[in-house]
Amino acid sequence: MKLFTGLVFCSLVLGVNSQYWFSFVGEAAQGAWDMWRAYSDMREADYIGADKYFHARGNYDAAQRGPGGAWAAEVISGKDPNDFRPAGLPDKY
Description:
single chain; about 0% strand; elongated
């Protein structure tokens, strides 16, 4: 319900035009997936002090998707996620 309300709000107030509606929804879904992937990687890494890095990485990846991804991320870090990367975190992440 919150997702639907947010999409309606964005379409009416923020002026998401009808021809870009499907693009916006797709970007939002992909952005949410990017943030989920970052969360899953954080859980897998189980590295103390790396939560800021994974949060920033999820937001950064989602924002790269476009307006829908930026909306899904809500708050864009605006920095390179590696600025938050802790020393010793494996290169896999």
